[in-house]
Amino acid sequence: MSSYTCSCGKILESPLKSTLILDKEISALINSGDIFNVPCSDCDRILKVEEKTDFFSPSKDYHLLFIPENSRTSFFLGKIAIDPSVDRLVIGYKELKEKLLMRENGLDDQILEILKLSYMSRHKKNINLYFKEIQNEKLYFYVEGLKLEEIGLTAISMDLYLQKLQEKLIYLKDDDILSFISPPYVNASQIDVEDEELN
Ligand SMILES: [Zn+2]
Question: How far is the CA of 25 from the centre of ligand 1 (A)?
Fold first, then answer.
């Protein structure tokens, strides 16, 4: 079990559970950013931490594995064992929130990552996109890294998404695309667009 030291000096045993069901309560805590809060019992501080967690849909047909941002390198070095039952892997809180939002909106995350990569490669910069919401027949994404310390917003039309969705079988035969949409880690950010020549 993990323990944390509050800045007041109190040592806190983690109250976080390693397995959680994605019910309404847990989904709300993920959305609000409070899912990994560890409150101090001696002062009024709340520690924001990240711990490896297995999330399951209420019917258990979806297994989402969360690993902390500071495990990213270990994961890419193959040092983290991923159980074959894992449907999706997310690294760090922002990816967790995004993946859940995609799912709640009934969107195909593989298609969204393809759309994200085409935006990233047009800008030839290591930017990051995070799905935000659907509004007025458009899919909105936060854009990080275009300008220092600024978060931008970009929108993709629902029509384009639906068109790509129809073409999905073609993408599933493309090795370049499979390199970032193959489960469990479905995320365009693992492609270095500064080095890639994508068409
Ligand atoms: Zn404290």
Answer: 26
Instruction: Catalogue the long-range contacts made by 139-142 (C-beta closer than 8 Å, 24 or more residues apart).
Output: 139/107, 139/112, 139/115, 141/116
Q: Can you give the length of the chain in residues?
A: 199
**Is 70 exceeded by the pLDDT of residue 139?**
yes
Between the CA of 11 and the centroid of ligand 1 the distance, in Å, is: 8
What band does 199 get if pLDDT is binned at 50, 70 and 90?
very low
**183 occurs within a structural domain:** yes
Contact 50, 68 (CB under 8 A): yes
Confirm whether 115 is domain-assigned.
Answer: yes
The verdict on residue 61 lying in a domain is no
**Spacing, Cα 51 to ligand 1 middle (Å):** 19
pTM higher than the cut 0.90? yes
Domain count, the chain: 1
Report the separation in Å between the CA atom of 7 and the middle of ligand 1, taken as the mean of its atom positions.
6
Rounded to the nearest angstrom, the distance between the alpha carbon of 114 and the centre of ligand 1 is: 44
Enclosing domain of residue 128:
105-199
Query: Looking at residue 196, what is its pLDDT?
Result: 56
